[in-house]
Amino acid sequence: MQHMTARLIDGKALAAEVRAALRPAVTALAARGAQPGLAAIVAGDDPASRVYVRNKVRACEETGVRSELHEFPADVAERALLECVAGLNRDPAVHGILVQLPLPAHLDTERVLAAVSPAKDVDGFHVENLGALLRGAPRFVPCTPAGVLRLLDHAGVPLAGRHAVVIGRSNIVGKPLALLLLQRDATVTICHSKTARLAELARQADVLVAAAGRPRMVGAEMVKPGACVIDVGTSRTADGKLSGDVDFAAASKVAGWITPVPGGVGPMTVAMLVANTVRATELSIA
Ligand code: NAD
Predict the structure, then answer these.
(1) φ/ψ bin of 117: left (φ > 0), alpha (ψ from -120 to 50), beta (otherwise)
(2) Looking at the whole model, is its pTM more than 0.90?
(3) Which of 66, 95, 165, 193 is the most exposed place for a label (fewest CB within 10 A)?
(4) What is the pLDDT of residues 60-114, one digit of tens each?
């Protein structure tokens, strides 16, 4: 095995840069009498969801984006949530709406996401926005995949003609990310829980993205020497620590580039949400 120490891709630092770079746009909007506004809806008391939403609200405020939090109990009626969304759709001071997932099991996630106005869908989860992404002309790119692309570009990782392997096929991470990589002329393989010979495929990747939510499932034996390894996974381990899908200590000896958890994709997701909210505001007054 080739002994190589991967370059660390620092998502925390890049996220701070992205947020700082948004300030002039926020100032320009203010000069036109528009302050970007994000409304976050959270239902239930999942501690991880609460932390994510709090981080998003804080990042907005640091960037001059107004934010409002709409909290509901775990047993909230779907109708109450839909009414909240409808009110936010109508509110001209709200430019972006996010529904923190997962929603409590009794709620129909698809129906709630479909209720968000596509023009305010800063998570990019509405079918209209996912469809636009599929066609290659996105309005709002889902935040985690958008953040991964920014990390790759910042690190100067070549994509055109390279083999990208994405582990995970969710609507919010794996599928949209695969589309973005395809749009950048990578040859993309999407792997999932039923994929046969996962390790063999992963080992062929020039860019390997792990988004399965399986702590440390990607070991050094799954990484091609010199490859770029992006770890989207965030799982809480029994000792309360955050674990990625990649065995960082082992994989960083083989990879050419690698993202840490925490401090990699997570902060970028939040920064891209702020960026999408600023863009939604610009589009609303264009
Ligand atoms: P999900 O559960 O909806 O999807 C997981 C995907 O991984 C599925 O498509 C499944 O087929 C695949 N998978 C599961 N086990 C597998 C295995 N053993 N081998 C191959 N594929 C397997 O999850 P998600 O919402 O896409 O999130 C994935 C991970 O990314 C989670 O850990 C989540 O917490 C994390 N996440 C992080 C951020 C961030 O900002 N850092 C954002 C979103 C999600």
Answers:
(1) beta
(2) yes
(3) 193
(4) 999 999 999 999 999 999 999 999 999 999 999 999 999 999 999 999 999 999 9
Tally Cβ neighbours within 10 Å of residue 3.
Answer: 7
Residue 113, H or E segment: helix 109-115
CB atoms within 10 A of CB 199: 14
Q: How many helices (H) and strands (E) does the chain have?
A: 10, 11
Q: How far is the CA of 28 from the centre of ligand 1 (A)?
A: 37
Q: Establish how many alpha carbons lie within 13 A of residue 188's alpha carbon, considering only the half-sphere containing its beta carbon.
A: 20
Work out whether the CA dihedral 136, 127, 11, 234 comes out positive or negative: negative
Find tokens 């023009």 and name the residue.
Answer: 119
CA atoms within a 13 Å half-sphere pointing along the CA-CB vector of 44: 14
Bridging pattern class, strands 242-243 and 37-43: unpaired
DSSP 9: -
d(CA 195, CA 135): 26
Round to whole Å and give the CA distance between 264 and 14.
9
Give residue 90's identity as a one-letter amino acid code. Answer: R
Ligand 1 nearest-atom number relative to CA 48: 34
114, β-bridge pairs: none
Decide: residue 95, CB within 10 A, 0-12 exposed, 13-18 middle, 19+ buried: buried
**Which ligand 1 atom lies nearest to the CA of residue 245?**
32
How does pLDDT run across 151-161, given as a tens digit for each residue? 999 999 999 99
Q: Which residues are bridge partners to 210 per DSSP?
A: 167, 231
**Active site members:** 56, 100, 123
